[in-house]
Each structure stands twice: as structure tokens, then as C-alpha cells.
Design a protein that fits this description.
The structure holds 2 protein chains of 2 kinds. By secondary structure, chain A is α/β, with parallel strands linked by helices. Chain A is built from 9 helices and 8 strands. Chain A has a 6-stranded mixed beta sheet, with helices on both faces. Chain B is an alpha/beta fold. Chain B has helices at residues 7-17, 30-42, 53-62, 78-90, 104-118, 150-166, 188-199, 224-231, 261-279; strands at residues 20-25, 45-51, 71-74, 96-99, 126-132, 135-140, 173-177, 203-207, 218-220, 240-247, 250-253. In chain B, strand 2 (45-51), helix 3 and strand 3 form a beta-alpha-beta unit. In chain B, helix 1 (7-17) packs across helix 9 (261-279), helix 2 (30-42) crosses helix 3 and helix 2 packs across helix 9 (261-279). The radius of gyration of chain B is 19 Å and the shape is globular. The chains are: A alpha/beta, B alpha/beta. Chains A and B meet through helix 3, helix 6, helix 7 and helix 8 of A and helix 8 of B.
């Protein structure tokens, strides 16, 4: 088997993640794929090597079977309850990534409601991100707060009096926290059967294996990481 | 008791019950009025119209709905409208209340006040029934509690289990959502879920949909953002949504301001069935 592999690929025996990370950093390889090491252990090593978790963002790319376009959801794995500053970072990472597809991203900063309520933090954060985009601090059209219906439907946005360019043509859903993004993504895959693949942003091209991503989509994930190269 | 587990079974039962009294708060938009007209014509309800005189009458005229024979309470002030509605429900003048073109938060506030003063003092929460693949999946709380602690969530869950018992489910299967995951296993939602599981004798799974063998009957969400996003998945997927607030004196249906008429009719039908079953009205169906 090993011989066969060596005929097709160059096999380098690397004992440590540190060494593999060095290879990707020094451009000896293009993409690093997590192996049999567990995710917590993997991130522990990455952390020691200077990969800072607060700068990371895991974005899911869905094939939206109903609207026939790609839909990006962030952050879907790394942050629990990102601060406004972290959300800004997540937003920038995703926007840069989506541009690689030749898309000028339309971003919905999601919240429970489409108006600002000081008691609901997500509405304030979304409003600020939206304002930052208006002031060109983010190079994309970020609209928020939007609830999921006004993000997805132009008609809903009109009836609620928040008509804008993002509603109904959204590319990126920026989720308020991990609970909402995790739940949303699982519903899309489990009930909607939307195909999904993930990409880790904010660091070198690294593919990780959260258990909810089907193994058969790993090739797509490598391709997504390679896009960033 | 017949198990009500789909919109088809809701529609059948609602039509047989026939003519429950439903107060509609601010039917001031043609889409809403069209829905109540249809619900009346099918025979689900006898409407009581509460709202601004000019707007209500003009919406009725717009959809060609003759409202002369119905009880009407004309009141321009929206805060007062919701209080009139709450009063009617808790005095049992009506069986169901339905929200029209009025901010949801006003409705919640009025109902909570009334529940505290005149009801059993229940923790109110919005229960959303999604029809997924021909059967209901209930999601709660999708509208009231922003960041409930585990005790509040326990009350919310009990309320949902009670609703499903009323609808004929013996032992509903519950998923308590938690974003506990490889990289971060110890999240608050998981600790809360464990506390709830310890207090309840029910079929409970903690985690996400992939942890369930089959679709759960009830999904308890950790916070409002999550609940609201999941509640409106009908904008994404092929599911139908009906939301209601369950008070101790009857249901309040809460259509979203962006729902279309046929959707609102189904939400009314759910309200009718729930109200009827809650009352345990001895009527042959």
C-alpha cells in the first residue's frame, strides 16, 4: 500500500503536527489536513505554534438547494459567544474568502429581530457591523440587524419595512453566537439535506474534521482551502 | 384521543370544532384580513375584530369581507388593543386570540401581565410547530425569553410537553439543543440541559439533530436568537410554521408580520384545535 502511495504521492513521514505546520508555513506543502489526532489536541498544538484561536473562523459553505446558490455561514465552530470585535474579525475573514469566488458578498448580520433592542446584544452588534460597512470599514454590503426571514426574503423585508439590497439575495449569514449557527447548520443539513463543507479561515490552509461534516465532502474542503493559497 | 401530529389533522379537527370565538388584534392589513375571512368561511372561527376603526374597515373592504355582523371593538391605541385582547382571553369572552398587524412584543407583554395577575402565573413562551416531512416538530421558546436560565427553560419545556400531551402525544421525544462540540464541550447550554434532564422524567437527548435517531417531537433552544432563527426556517426549507403563545386561559396565535394569508389560516386552525382541546369541551367531534 505504501509503495503504491509513493508512486502517486510524495510521502513524508512526519511525527509531529509542529513539523507539518512548519511545512505548510514554509510552502513545502499547500494544505495541512488534520489526521487522526483529536480536534482539542490539534488546536492545542496549533495554539502553541502561534495559531490564535480568537483570530480563527470556521465558515460553512452550503449548496442552497432551494435558491440555487452558495450560502456561507460563519462562525460555525470556533467561537462560543463572539464579542463585537471578534464578529468584525469573522466578518472580514469571510468577506475576503467569499470574494475568491468572484462574488461581491452580501452579508446579513443576523439577530432575533430586525430592529435594535438594547436588551438583545445581537441586534446591537449587527447594527454596528452594518454601520461599519456603510462607513467602508468592511469591504462588503453588511446589513443588520436582520432576522432570518428578512435576510432570506425580499417580500418579508418589504412587509417589515426594512427593504435593502441584501434581503433576498444574501450570500453570507453572520450568526450571533455558536448556539444559533450550530443549530441552523444542523437543520440545513439534516432537514434540508443541503450539501455542506467547511473551511478554517484566519490561519494557514488547514482542514479540520468536526464530526457533523460528512467524510465524502473532505475533497471539497481541501479544494476550499487550496482556493485560499 | 386522536393524535394531532400534522396540519392535515389540524385542519380536519378545526373544521369539525367550528366557530370558536377568536379576537384578532389589529387586522389592519389586507393579508391578515384575508386570512380571517377565509378562516371564518371555512368555519374555524367567529371573529371579534379589535383595532383602529378606519384601518380595520378599510382592510375588510379591500378583501371584500362583510364584517357588519361581527363584534367589533374600535380602539386606535395599540397598547390598549393588546390589553383588550388579553382581557377577553382571561375573562374567557373569547377562546383564542390572534395577533394581527401589531408589534409582537406588545402582545407578549400584555399576556404576561394578565397571566401573572389572573392566570396560573405560567412562564410564557412561544411554541412553534413546524410541519416537517408530514409531521410536527415543536420548537420553543422562539419568541419571549432572551437568555433564559435553566429553571426558566425547564418551565418552557414543561409547557411544550403539556401542549403535546393535549395534542395526543403520550411521551414526546425531546432534543435539548446545545452547541457542545469537540473543541468546546463544556458550554452553558449543556450544563443547563443536564440540570433539566435531572428534573424531568422524559425522553431527552442533549446536543444537535445528528444526535437523534429520528426527528424529535420537541426541540428546546438555548436562547432567543437560536429560537427565532430556527422558527423561521420555512423561509429556507420545505417546512410550514405555526407559532403560538400558550397561556393558562388559552392560546394566542402569533403569525409573523411577513406570513401570507394561507399560512395565517393554518395558524388560526392550530389555535382553534389547541383552545378546544384545552377546554376539554364535551362536544362530539
Amino acid at each position: 500500500m505504501k509503495n503504491l502511495l509513493q508512486q502517486v504521492f510524495r510521502v513524508v513521514e512526519v511525527g509531529e503536527v509542529e513539523e507539518a505546520l512548519r511545512m505548510v508555513r514554509e510552502d513545502e506543502v499547500d494544505v495541512l489536513v488534520q489526521g487522526s489526532i483529536t480536534i482539542p489536541k490539534f488546536f492545542e498544538v496549533l495554539g502553541k505554534e502561534g495559531v490564535r484561536r480568537e483570530n480563527l473562523c470556521f465558515t460553512l459553505v452550503f449548496e442552497d438547494l432551494i435558491r440555487g446558490k452558495l450560502l456561507f455561514v460563519a462562525d460555525a465552530y470556533i467561537h462560543d459567544f463572539p464579542s463585537l470585535e471578534e464578529k468584525f474579525g469573522i466578518c472580514e475573514e469571510v468577506v475576503d474568502f467569499v470574494k475568491l469566488f468572484g462574488i461581491k458578498p452580501k452579508v446579513a448580520a443576523l439577530a432575533a429581530i430586525e430592529t435594535v433592542n438594547p436588551a438583545i446584544v445581537s441586534t446591537i452588534d449587527a447594527a454596528v457591523l452594518s454601520k461599519m460597512s456603510q462607513r467602508r470599514q468592511i469591504d462588503a454590503n453588511v446589513e443588520g440587524p436582520l432576522d432570518i426571514d428578512t435576510a432570506l426574503s425580499k417580500v418579508a423585508a418589504k412587509r417589515k419595512g426594512v427593504d435593502n439590497e441584501v434581503s433576498g439575495d444574501v450570500d453570507v449569514l453572520l450568526c450571533p453566537d455558536i448556539e444559533s449557527s450550530f443549530a441552523l447548520c444542523h437543520f440545513l443539513t439534516q432537514i434540508g439535506n443541503f450539501p455542506v463543507a467547511g473551511v478554517l479561515l484566519g490561519t494557514e490552509p488547514i482542514v479540520i474534521h468536526p464530526r457533523f461534516i460528512p467524510v465524502e465532502n473532505k475533497a471539497v474542503e481541501v479544494a476550499l482551502s487550496a482556493l485560499r493559497h | 384521543m386522536l393524535k394531532i401530529d400534522s396540519l392535515l389533522s389540524v385542519r380536519k379537527e378545526a373544521a369539525k370544532i367550528g366557530g370558536l370565538r377568536l379576537a384578532v388584534l389589529s387586522p389592519e392589513d389586507a393579508e391578515f384580513m384575508k386570512a380571517f375571512k377565509e378562516a371564518y368561511e371555512i368555519g374555524y372561527i367567529t371573529p371579534v375584530l379589535v383595532g383602529d376603526k378606519r384601518r380595520v374597515l378599510s382592510a375588510a373592504e379591500e378583501v371584500d369581507f362583510d364584517v357588519t355582523s361581527f363584534q367589533k371593538v374600535f380602539e386606535p391605541d395599540r397598547e390598549k388593543i393588546v390589553h383588550i385582547g388579553a382581557e377577553m382571553l382571561f375573562s374567557r369572552t373569547v377562546d383564542v386570540v390572534s395577533k394581527g398587524q401589531i408589534p409582537t412584543s406588545y402582545v407578549y407583554r400584555a399576556m404576561m401581565k394578565e397571566e401573572k395577575e389572573r392566570g396560573e402565573g405560567r412562564k410564557l413562551a412561544v411554541i412553534t410547530l413546524h410541519e416537517v416531512k408530514g409531521r410536527f416538530v415543536v420548537i420553543t421558546d422562539t419568541g419571549v425569553n432572551i437568555n433564559p436560565d435553566w429553571k426558566a427553560k425547564l418551565e418552557v419545556l414543561k409547557n411544550a410537553i403539556f401542549l403535546l400531551n393535549v395534542l395526543g402525544y403520550d411521551d414526546p421525544r425531546v432534543l435539548i439543543l446545545s452547541a457542545s462540540r469537540e473543541i468546546e464541550e463544556d458550554v452553558k447550554s449543556k450544563r443547563d440541559a443536564e440540570s433539566i434532564r435531572n428534573k424531568l422524567n422524559a425522553h431527552i437527548t442533549i446536543g444537535s439533530l445528528i444526535d437523534c435517531q429520528s426527528l424529535p417531537d420537541i426541540v428546546l433552544v438555548p436562547n432567543l436568537d437560536t429560537g427565532n432563527i430556527l422558527a423561521k426556517l420555512d423561509f429556507f426549507l420545505n417546512v410550514t410554521r405555526c407559532s403560538l403563545l400558550l397561556t393558562s386561559c388559552g392560546p394566542v396565535t402569533v403569525p409573523s408580520r411577513s406570513d401570507d394569508a394561507s399560512h395565517i389560516v393554518d395558524e388560526v386552525a392550530v389555535g382553534v384545535v389547541v383552545a378546544h382541546r384545552l377546554k376539554g369541551v364535551e362536544r362530539e367531534i
